[in-house]
Amino acid sequence: MARKRSRLDIITDMLASIQDKGGEIKPTHLMYKSNLSHDQMKSYLDELVGKELIGKIKKSSYDYIIITDKGHSFLQKLREMQEFERTFGI
Amino acid sequence: MFEIVYSPAWFYGKDLVIDAVGIIILFLIGFFSLKYYKINPAKKTYLWLALSFFMISLSFLFKILTNFRIYYDVDITRNIAGMVYSYDLVRYTDILFYIGTLANRILMLLGLYALYSIYSEHSKSEAWFSAYLLVIVAVFTHSNYYIFHITSFILVMLISLKYIQNYRKNKSQPARLLAASFGIITISHLLFCFILMSQLLYVAAEIIQLIGFLLLLITFIRVLKDGKKKKPA
Question: ipTM for the complex?
Answer without folding.
Answer: 0.83
